[in-house]
Amino acid sequence: xxxxxxxxxxxxxxxxxxxxxxxxxxxxxxxxxxxxxxxxxxxxxxxxxxxxxxxxxxxxxxxxxxxxxxxxxxxxxxxxxxxxxxxxxxxxxxxxxxxxxxxxxxxxxxxxxxxxxxxxxxxxxxxxxxxxxxxxxxxxxxxxxxxxxxxxxxxxxxxxxxxxxxxxxxxxxxxxxxxxxxxxxxxxxxxxxxxxxxxxxxxxxxxxxxxxxxxxxxxxxxxxxxxxxxxxxxxxxxxxxxxxxxxxxxxxxxxxxxxxxxxxxxxxxxxxxxxxxxxxxxxxxxxxxxxxxxxxxxxxxxxxxxxxxxxxxxxxxxxxxxxxxxxxxxxxxxxxxxxxxxxxxxxxxxxxxxxxxxxxxxxxxxxxxxxxxxxxx
Amino acid sequence: xxxxxxxxxxxxxxxxxxxxxxxxxxxxxxxxxxxxxxxxxxxxxxxxxxxxxxxxxxxxxxxxxxxxxxxxxxxxxxxxxxxxxxxxxxxxxxxxxxxxxxxxxxxxxxxxxxxxxxxxxxxxxxxxxxxxxxxxxxxxxxxxxxxxxxxxxxxxxxxxxxxxxxxxxxxxxxxxxxxxxxxxxxxxxxxxxxxxxxxxxxxxxxxxxxxxxxxxxxxxxxxxxxxxxxxxxxxxxxxxxxxxxxxxxxxxxxxxxxxxxxxxxxxxxxxxxxxxxxxxxxxxxxxxxxxxxxxxxxxxxxxxxxxxxxxxxxxxxxxxxxxxxxxxxxxxxxxxxxxxxxxxxxxxxxxxxxxxxxxxxxxxx
Lengths: 377, 365
What we know:
With 377 residues, chain A is an alpha+beta fold. Chain A has helices at 10-26, 43-51, 70-83, 91-104, 107-118, 235-245, 257-265, 272-300, 306-331, 342-353, 364-376; strands at 124-127, 143-147, 150-157, 168-174, 187-193, 199-204, 213-224, 228-229.
């Protein structure tokens, strides 16, 4: 395992300054920060970012993207997340779907979807979890049946974030029956239009009452052959690799940072106890950032840091939660989502949403198993 | 890591591997000294790395010294490697004072410590001085005539009350009772050479040592849990044990990288934010990883002979020395609070700064 210290080049520093200036001008001073990558769905903001070249950074220019490095993406992402920018509309498509299309997609699929993703206009949800299939993805029951020219898909996906706002999702489903002892075989990823008549999107109210999760029912949805993503039967390998390297970005440790900043803003003076809380969180954030940036640099060097990435997500998402609880304890308050204090309102939101940080993109328990296997190797 | 520093690390690893085995550490803890190891280190010039050659040191920079300290920490080396060069040597060289032979130590000023200098007559009480009793000189600061001075106090003239930390490393109390100092013992302290700067260097040194010790704790834990069989399989196959291994690895990497960045950013002197964050992170990492490692090891880890305890007793000592987690968190927090909410993110995202000597743009250190 190798985490090497890395320095931002002058060009990377210049990019950071550019993003910082943009955010200072673009985000109204009195706007409420979004918490994390799923914090707020704002297509207009996504398009504005895309116009600056900060969406689709990993996508090559021939597909409408910008062919930038993992570190450049890191720099932009951390500035957006630290500022609490509303990046929820495009983020998942940009982080997860675009690389999957680049790795596994056909030339036609890339040309169809990538320019829209890079323009901040085409949004994807993830189609993995089902009522009886969470961490054990190989157990999905959604089934695709061979028909003339493609497949018909029937099944139910759940916890589908923003399906009511997004355009497509890549559905992990069974394209051939489960064989004894080979449960990972026979799964495929099919790109499904969320607006297809056979698709019914129903809200599953989120813990805090908001509309974030959905149940997505697929009833004999026709998916043409050219919407199969990657190899037939390789769905499990594709989704696990899709998860692997996207685990360690700033979206895994910065979700609650705006709560800390607004807490500090509302302190007229800090006591020694409060200073100790602030210092501890800042020290930890710095250290986790060093690790996260190091993974980005090693991706650019062509490495495959899957264990490192799992460690960063595991420690980073727990930090996001620790931050919330440390501030709640320090604030000696009673939580109220409707509080007139921005800090208090954000804190309430963070308490209600923070359990998701250690679930989404691989639970803490699954990550520990992944990391432990890598450590033992 | 630069090629030179890589080579330094490799040579040091060989030297410690030969002369600082777990058996050597047990022996050194009994006698409070490891002469064979210290002599070999001195011959190689390692204790005075980061002290300029023109001042009698070995040259190199703070990051070189920290690379050595990381190796020393990994081997639980019971010698004042940090104190002699990076701390005492730095203050003496900066003040233009002679670098004496032998081991040197420092006192940053603990509660109850006093240093009174009248002319060249010293009355002082310094507590928990690392290897104080066997050092040639102890370096401390004093105010005299409205001026801050570096004092290089000969220990031969002090009465010594031995003390130990949890790892049986000497932490002695020294008292000078109206002692006339030699001429080469006092000089004005230049700007930036003061107790706060000394403490910062001490904290950086302990962060590097903790990083090294944690790396070894991580290895030992992986090895032991991979070999130890219970219920018919290696205990590393149990998820509950895996959780400990992952925690240890995370804390090790977190503390290690923070210490490395703090060392690399010391050009030439360590930066407050880097070191405060590194020591706070190292202290927390030491606590969390030591607990997880003992849990993963079971009773074998509680024996004096087994290597784990040599490392964890040092982690439990070093985390408090030159300021513990609360101290550095509070100091960092005060500074950040003074800068205001909008300066918080720019501070946290500072990272490794500047160009690295010999590295292409954006390359890893």
